[in-house]
Design brief:
Order of helices and strands: HEEHEHE
Strand order of the largest sheet: 1-2
Number of helices: 3
Number of strands: 4
Distance between the termini: 39 Å
Radius of gyration: 14 Å
Shape: globular
Length: about 80
């Protein structure tokens, strides 16, 4: 049986060069480590902007890597993401 790895474990691996995001429309390959770095930077910016855990943030972005980074950064900062279409 194959061992399952959680997203948290993949993001926590500083040596992980495994692709986390691969897009076709505009060629982007983002490793778990690079994804984690972007998430942490944005989460820190959100906290520095005065947002506090439990605050609700509306997220209006097209589907793509930016949406993923923003959504996960909101979660990491303890914020509530409210994605709108």
């Amino acid at each position: 049986m194959m061992k399952r790895t959680t997203l948290t474990e993949l993001l926590a691996d500083p040596k992980s060069a495994a692709p986390a995001v691969i897009t076709e429309s505009s060629p982007v390959v983002l490793t778990y480590r690079a994804l984690d770095d972007q998430i942490e930077r944005l989460a820190e910016q959100l906290r520095s902007a005065g947002l506090h855990p439990g605050d609700c943030v509306v997220l209006v972005l097209p589907n793509g890597p930016e949406f993923l980074v923003h959504f996960l950064a909101l979660a990491r900062a303890g914020l509530i993401a409210a994605p709108l279409n």
